[in-house]
């Protein structure tokens, strides 16, 4: 069994309840976006909007995903790009990206913990921190219909 299959299966074991699954479909993308947005708010070079901690971090995250599955990494790169575009548009509109992201981050994690309370199982990342990156990949694997 490929490593990605084992990780996705293990993650899926604590995500069987339909309510918890629905919560994850809402909250995991929001958490991913909020982290990107918080990192987007930390510039590396003031004259270039795209030179920020988010871009650097996402490159590292995508290397991790590529090691697991190239197809999955492409899907995650597309989603990460959408997150960056949303951050840029918000910034251009004069919105406080970091503050909005912080609020979304807190609210989405409250949702996640509630979903796991309904599920009756602890979040996977409490066992292994890498499951923080497997959660978004788990959702992407559904969008890719298992062809990863």
Keywords:
148 residues, mainly alpha, 6 helices, 74% helix, globular
Instruction: Give the helices and strands as they follow along the chain.
Output: HHHHHH
Q: Strand content of the residues, in percent?
A: under 5%
Structural class: mainly alpha
Portion in helices = over 70%
- The overall average pLDDT, rounded, is 93
- What best-fitting shape do the alpha-carbon axes yield? globular
- Biggest sheet record: none
Please tell me how large the radius of gyration is: 16 Å
Q: Which oligomeric form is depicted?
A: single chain
Topology:
Layout: H1 3-13, H2 18-40, H3 53-68, H4 70-92, H5 97-119, H6 131-143
Structural features, described:
By secondary structure, the chain is mainly α. It has helices spanning 3-13, 18-40, 53-68, 70-92, 97-119, 131-143.
Give a brief rundown of this model.
This protein is mainly alpha-helical. It contains 6 helices and no strands.
